Structures
1.
Amino acid sequence: MAGPSIAPAVGRSWFSQVSVQVAESVFAVLFPSDCRICGEPLVNVSRLPVCPQCLAAMRPIAGGVCAVCGERLFSSFALSGSDGAPRCGLCRRIAPAFVRAVAYGSYEGGLRELIHLLKYAGVHPAANVLGRMLAEAIADLEPELPPDSIAVVPVPLHRSKLREREFNHAERIARAAIKTKLSPASGRLLLCPGILERKRETPSQTGLTRHQRRENVRGAFGVAQPETVRGREVLLVDDVYTTGATVSECARVLRRAGATKVWVATVARTLKASEQPVEIRLSGAADVEVSAEKEIPLARAAGG
Ligand SMILES: [Zn+2]
Ligand SMILES: [Zn+2]
């Protein structure tokens, strides 16, 4: 029964002005920004300022990868080891200190930006999405993991870096991955963030060769709780696997402290592209750069 006599024009305009203000402030809270990856306006309520299209584009690695380190394999590199599993050239030459490293996606595009949102912009809800991805990667290891508990060790930050950033992103992602209960192994995954420590600050690894990266992290880590790892298997967790220098060094000290096996799971991995030069380490010689085969990666050839 609304009519002009019940709701005077002045009251209505005041009310609509207030409701616009309320709507705007609610909008500002629920939709704080555009998608932080593609810039499109967000239309759904979410604590994570990333649109569904950008999230959906973060696909798992497709195509053949090395059974040890997870590097992309091109058909001519798909050389099998003694167990029949394909291995990349590097893993055929030197077996890493870890048994196997798995990763969810390629470290590029939106996934790379999502990791940066957590790491450098402190967008904490990103850890949940990255944790789900990490849980999917861990599920790949499931058949090989021990039936009893396994110690999950996030790659630690140096205390000065931790003070500056206020959180260890690897630990946040590991915690979120365990919470998803995606893999049957989740119940056996025991987060043990205090086992490893970064004893010294390491300069940024960006732009360094594989050999330089290895030198950069050598001796940077120590096992703070050797009694916790002795005789046990460890799952090392980090955001990105680049050349594997960091996780290899962590795995080396964990093994030396008595860990029986070290597994590695990361959210992302840098993958060799056919156009990029491939660094090949010759025994006893300095790193040399050689051109990669002009070949289409398996993933791309398969349309993925
Ligand atoms: Zn987007
Ligand atoms: Zn490999």
2.
Amino acid sequence: MSLHFIEVENLARTFPQPGRQPPLTVFEHVNFTIEKGEFICVIGHSGCGKSTILNILAGLDAASEGAFVMDGKEVSGPSRDRGVIFQNHSLLPWLSALGNVSFAVRARWPEWSRRQVREHSLSYLKMVGLAGAEHKKPSELSGGMRQRVGIARAFAIEPKLLLMDEPFGALDALTRGVIQDELLEIWGRTHQTVFMITHDVDEAILLADRVMLMTNGPDARIAESVVIDIPRPRDRSAIHQHPEYYTIRNHLVDFLITRSKSLQGRVGGPGQQPRSVNPVRGTGVPDPGGTPRVVGGTG
Ligand SMILES: Nc1ncnc2c1ncn2[C@@H]1O[C@H](COP(=O)(O)OP(=O)(O)OP(=O)(O)O)[C@@H](O)[C@H]1O
Ligand SMILES: [Mg+2]
């Protein structure tokens, strides 16, 4: 019996390279655990392997090494206990917005009546602000609207693990804020476990219980697991006034500016969890050079 809802052990992904070049190790020694109901954000520079990790968790790509255990079972291949929202929406072009959501809902609950499927699907389309556009095909929707259909589809199947790859990147600031609030509301209600990639430090502080920070690739690792203990519910318009906000924000930004590079290929190892850091309490906070000042608990 495993102790954690999700355990990722020694994950590595290599890709063959053309000619006689050695294989490219995108990341290795990736170890982390996630508890049930936790909201995790992942931040790291472009190309470090965030989407690749997410695709492995989704069962859409296979790790070169390592294991992913969810709910005590080793996972391989996709299944409906994991819902995915991709960096770019991936809708079925021949189905309407409603058709795309109900297709997934019907597959998830085959015993439901047509009416149940329709009502459930419509409620999620309404949530993302698409009531009235449900009969439009993806080609008739804007990029942001298509992304919202993808978001509605993933939420609608109420998966045990929601995997999101920069889900709000293509949305305008207003819609993004509305959907962030909706996401927090649904997450608070359903106790889903969320693993979300974002480039937006402020979004991560608003949403996450912990932010995992990845070093640059190749040979990327997860270097730190940063605890965000700003109390919930969090208010998007006032959170930056919280006394802890800028301590956390500076820590994340410093990582992206300096430690993501200085620690590249230098942290972690087989079975080693990322350093657990609480910037507010000062536990586990590394020196700029990367050596720990106070060693915190394990991740
Ligand atoms: N099929 C593939 N063959 C070879 N290399 C690949 C393949 N898929 C991904 N890579 C490489 O793996 C690395 C990580 O890619 P990935 O898409 O996971 O990055 P990312 O962290 O999500 O970046 P971004 O923030 O830009 O989305 C990149 O260097 C990419 O070129
Ligand atoms: Mg990506």
3.
Amino acid sequence: MVFGQLVVGPPGSGKTTYCNGMSQFLKLIGRKVAVVNLDPANDALPYECAVNIEDLIKLSDVMVEHSLGPNGGLIYCMDYLEKNIDWLESKLEPLLNDHYLLFDFPGQVELFFLHSNAKNIINKLIKKLNLRLTVVHLVDAHLCSDPGKYVSALILSLSTMLHLALPHINVLSKIDLIESYGKLAFNLEYYTDVQDLSYLMYHLDQDPRAAKYRKLTKGLNDVIEDHGIVNFTTLDIQDKESVGNLVKLIDKSNGYIFSGIESSAVEFSKIAAGPTDWDYYRYPLLFSILYTAI
Ligand SMILES: Nc1nc2c(ncn2[C@@H]2O[C@H](COP(=O)(O)OP(=O)(O)OP(=O)(O)O)[C@@H](O)[C@H]2O)c(=O)[nH]1
Ligand SMILES: [Mg+2]
């Protein structure tokens, strides 16, 4: 069984930086990591890349050959990758023995709630290669500084969760910058826990532009609250403790924590229902490796 993360999120939310930081952290705690770049627009990669979509197709070539702009070109590249999934499978196969996989995706969010190419690629890989993957959806914490943008972030997160239908963790990235945006309308837990959104309506009403769309925003808030599945974890990619806490959540969501454990279904469900720290306490070796590293 092979474990890993699918790193997605809007442009500039920090996906490539995250893959770099996360791969370094995972190596530190003893995992063999392979980063897979599936963004054909990623020119200067900060990490050493095990597989690069650029070796299959180049965005610049597509734009010239098919007279497409960068976004249309990107969709073409993802369609091309889906048609040539054998290429990706053959590149991944040698890594499957002992690597943990990190997939760096493009920032065009329409790939994750509109088009089916990225979803088909992911599902084919999961099925054919027996992968256990968690979606790590990065959203810039800056969006908390504006109630309207925060609602957009919630809707985007919900759509991505429903579209991909995989273990999923929403992350507020670049949390190190949050104080520079001024005082937030609520404390950070309000945003991470997605608490009562009716309080947000009051703040939206203070802005004449937002007030115009009150009914729509209220409807969107109701959709988010009815589903009740969106929340966020905060991440400072330069802080080992912050990265370590996220790793624990991811390990639980994709089943990494259970790998190599011979136990009954009852034991597994106890672990699944318990708090994350308890898992590491229960498995002292893993716990000590993790905490020696951070
Ligand atoms: N302060 C701060 N800056 C960050 C962080 N993560 C990323 N950045 C910066 O944000 C910018 C965008 O980061 P990327 O990692 O390229 O973001 P991306 O999501 O891969 O961007 P696209 O691939 O274009 O969608 C870069 O200038 C990074 O240095 C963070 O945690 N804190
Ligand atoms: Mg990137």
